[in-house]
Amino acid sequence: MLTTTLDGLWVLQILTGIEVVAPELGLRPVLPSVETKDMALAHPVADELKAEGVIDEHGAVDPAVVEWLTVLARRDMALWLQAVRPVAGEAEPVPTQVTLARFAQWWVSLERSDIVVRLGGAGTSSSEGAANQVISNQLERLCGPASPASFKPVTVATDRILGEVKDRDSLRRFLMSTGELDADQMHILLTTADTGRSAQASIIALQTGVDSGSETRVRVEGSVVTVIDTPEGRVIAEHFERDGRRWMIMAPGSLSNIAAAVNDMVRRLPAAADWHAYRKVV
């Protein structure tokens, strides 16, 4: 795993000739017509990369790093994760964003937190089961281990929540009005909504090379999977649309429940059940 800065990533992109990596992380493309190799090597961060053995004195980049950047640039599909953890006092939390990209059988993870970026290989897969295992391993690494919360799964109409819930008090009134929740379910739902006590990591799926109506040809799946760590344990929330209505399922955040929710989400991409083997046509 390579840890550097946004400037360090910029230098590596110029030296490898890779213009675009993970724009969803707020990373702009490099402009080879004006951002030259000499300009990159003159940047102070280039000396740091040389000291770490990432580039040599001629500007050649370590082959493993070249492979990682190539996977990001040529990805067939990806997961995009945004994580926020509660912080003490009135300080604003700094979100962490991660792209987990697959090109052919290779997987690469690119993390960004403010100006710090981490880049590394995430494994390989040749089947859906192996691809799911790569994803599970990376989610466990990024979110850390946690015991699942203990409660019965809950299904809620998201449209009703958006229409009726404005704050914590209105959420409580809404949940009580359903008349279908027990005390444990009520407590968990209220706790997951408290961003001052619960960490959240939301995950969406992307597929490239799709006629999406934009020049990028990227399809963003409309459903979302969110991993929520509460004082009572980990919760998984699955947001999706069915029969023209939007729904949310909340369940204990066991490894198997998280894996199943993510697999359901990626199977909603245009590639459907072939998401793990899909190759885009350039």
From TrEMBL:
Compartments where located: Cytoplasm
UniProt record similarity statement: Belongs to the EspG family.
Organism: Mycolicibacterium tokaiense
Keywords, sorted A to Z: Chaperone, Cytoplasm
Location, primary (coarse class): cytoplasm
This protein's name: ESX-1 EspG family protein
A Gene Ontology cellular-component term: cytoplasm
